[in-house]
Amino acid sequence: MNSLFDENHANQILRRIKQLRPDSQQNWGKMNVAQMLAHCSSFQDIATGSSTASRSWLGVLIGRMVKPVFYNDKPLPQNMSTIPTIIIADNREVEKEKEILIQKIIRFQKKGPEICTKKPHPFFGKLSPDEWGRGLYKHLDHHLKQFSV
């Protein structure tokens, strides 16, 4: 499984992000490209503990049982629900959001597993650094496919 802790996998994601343009159109979902980049950046912040989100009641009930969907080899479903605090609805600048996300990915990859938060994921609960690395790769891959890159 691909992981953001692997330099080759991180570089693959970075190359794909750099292909995004202000006029890139989504294949599904409501976010435009700048909002998607900001959303992914906000999710990076949750993984590193730079920001937090409360556990959802549904996550507390079933999160542990379904958490492999976050880091296994199967693609994430289109239009999957997300953490409410990282839904981006305001206007953003693509190039600015792109650079912010790129820097966060580079930092995550370079710092290694110790960068991961010990706080639980808002839905899936406690994740190991390996699960965070694989899950972040999968999340980014999902959104880059959303925009055909």
Could you walk me through the main structural features you see in this protein, from its secondary elements to its overall organization?
The chain is mainly α. It has one domain. 52% of the residues lie in helices and 0% in strands. The chain contains six helices and no strands. This is DUF1569 domain-containing protein. It comes from Paenibacillus oryzae.
Helix content: 40-55%
Separation, N- and C-terminal Cα atoms = 19 Å
Order of helices and strands: HHHHHH
Strand content: under 5%
How many individual domains?
Answer: 1
The major β-sheet equals: none
Low-confidence stretches: none
Q: pLDDT average, as an integer?
A: 96
Q: What's the tally of helices?
A: 6
Quaternary assembly: single chain
The shape is: globular
User: How many distinct beta strands?
Assistant: 0
Radius of gyration equals 14 Å
Structural class: mainly alpha
